[in-house]
Amino acid sequence: MIPIFGLSVGLILAAQTASAGCYADYKAKKDNPLKLHYGVVELRGDCSKKAARDEVAARIKRDGWTLLNVLSVFDDDGLNGKEQSAGPYYLRY
User: What is the mean pLDDT of the chain?
Assistant: First the structure.
């Protein structure tokens, strides 16, 4: 009975982790004239900094932005306080 309970708890925890959001914050630029922005995106692919670089660069490029760097990758808890800093670039891409 106890092993079945342990397995059930493990599966529930794994499902909760899998459903947690994954986000990245980044800095980007445009030239002529120089413009900079800080943004936050929800990642659709792998939740790693390396994968975030490619995904964010591709998304922001559509609007003429060049990725400078991905600052961090985080889950839902890391969103706190970032909306004000990112302004119009909060979950825009």
Answer: 87
Q: Which residue has the tokens 């890391």?
A: 78
**What CA–CA distance (Å, rounded) separates 46 from 88?**
25
Name the β-bridge partners of 90: 40
Q: What is the 3-state secondary structure (H, E, C) of 31-90?
A: CCCCEEEEEEEECCCCCCHHHHHHHHHHHHHCCCCEEEEEEEEECHHHHCCHHHHHHHHE
**Band of pLDDT at residue 17, cut at 50, 70 and 90:** very low
Could you give the CA distance from residue 91 to residue 24 in angstroms, rounded to a whole number?
Answer: 10
Going from N- to C-terminal start, the domains of the chain cover 21-89
Residues 6+ apart with CB under 8 A from 83: 40, 90
Run of H or E residues at 15: helix 2-19
Q: What pLDDT score was predicted for residue 20?
A: 85
